């Protein structure tokens, strides 16, 4: 069985133990007071008197808490709220005095009137102080519960806001990829209709994977690479022998968590600024490895360059969205930047917290290029 005080519950046994401790303390105080005066009663008498007084308040404490909830004293402090509690404290204290006197009249060889006069003379101030002490405890518990509720609500709102912002970034990212890919297919329709049809089939597989598999913000690197292979297959058909790919994946990174579609815009950016603008061949290299508590992903291409004075953080929809997604998901523990590599080319370096997750289901099926 539990005793409820507003939003706080306490087991009946523990509640009785707390009040029993109060009974024992005040019984000892009464004994010491009389001992210093040179005259004492039996220990049982002191315990009985203290028990009558404080177990009465143990029974009245839930009433005090209900009155405190119904007529709270809250900022800005107003006279009417204090006035209500002053009346309530007087009423409950009088009730405690009456109950104590009534019980004492049964256990003592005196009338109720005699006992009531003694209780009023000895315990009125104590009763009032007890009421206001219980009121203060209730207010403190209420403020603590309210603060916890507000912190939880603030945390929930912050989480919902972050999820909404991440979803907006993803909806910006996928149309950006889709339109660029469709443009690449259109350029092949007059040159190589068979390749264009093959690219459409791959794009269909990729879009199906998007619709089926991306309810969350993170997937395993293994699945991310499977989806990236669909995209690379499309680009290899577009550029034919001019584009090659090399992938170096550390086995212990395959089950790491990465933001879904994190690699595709980076690879697309590398192709667009490399072979998409420059003559000659290009090689896209993807490397993953673990460095202590970080997952390191490097995407390199050999046929582009950073202009002198260019921002190593990079610009463009792909990089900007990726940077914002990393910040929303991982805060300061993730990073992305661009670096020149020797003898030529640019590397996009992504650093994420190293964390393994389980694969929800099988990776999307596709035909490797």
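^ Assign residues to that structure.
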């Amino acid at each position: 069985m539990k005793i409820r005080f507003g939003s706080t519950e306490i087991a009946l046994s523990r509640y009785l133990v707390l009040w029993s401790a109060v009974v024992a303390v005040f019984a000892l105080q009464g004994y010491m007071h009389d001992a210093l005066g040179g005259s004492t009663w039996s220990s049982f008498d002191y315990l009985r008197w203290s028990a009558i007084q404080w177990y009465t308040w143990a029974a009245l404490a839930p009433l005090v808490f209900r009155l405190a909830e119904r007529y709270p004293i809250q900022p800005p402090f107003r006279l009417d709220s204090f006035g209500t509690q002053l009346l309530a404290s007087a009423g409950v204290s009088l009730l405690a005095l009456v109950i104590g006197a009534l019980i004492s009249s049964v256990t003592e060889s005196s009338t109720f009137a005699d006992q009531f006069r003694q209780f009023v003379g000895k315990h009125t101030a104590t009763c009032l102080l007890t009421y206001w002490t219980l009121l203060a405890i209730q207010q403190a518990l209420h403020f603590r519960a309210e603060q916890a509720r507000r912190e939880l609500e603030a945390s929930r709102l912050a989480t919902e806001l972050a999820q909404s912002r991440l979803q907006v970034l993803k909806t910006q990212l996928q149309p950006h990829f889709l339109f660029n890919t469709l443009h690449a297919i259109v350029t092949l329709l007059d040159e190589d209709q068979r390749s264009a049809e093959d690219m459409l089939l791959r794009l269909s597989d990729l879009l199906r994977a998007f619709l089926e598999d991306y309810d969350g913000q993170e997937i395993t690197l293994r699945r991310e690479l499977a989806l990236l292979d669909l995209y690379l297959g499309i680009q290899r058909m577009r550029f034919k022998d001019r584009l090659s790919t090399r992938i170096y994946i550390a086995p212990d990174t395959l089950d790491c968590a990465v933001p879904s579609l994190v690699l595709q815009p980076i690879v697309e950016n590398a192709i667009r600024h490399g072979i998409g603008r420059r003559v000659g061949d290009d090689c896209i290299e993807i490397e993953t490895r673990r460095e202590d508590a970080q997952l390191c992903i490097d995407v390199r291409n050999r046929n582009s360059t950073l202009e002198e004075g260019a921002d190593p953080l990079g610009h463009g929809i792909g990089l900007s969205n990726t940077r914002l997604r990393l910040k929303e998901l991982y805060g300061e523990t993730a990073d992305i930047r661009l670096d020149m590599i020797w003898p030529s080319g640019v590397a996009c370096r992504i650093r994420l917290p190293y964390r393994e997750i389980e694969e929800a289901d099988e990776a999307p099926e596709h035909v490797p290029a």
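The first helix runs from residue 12 to 37.
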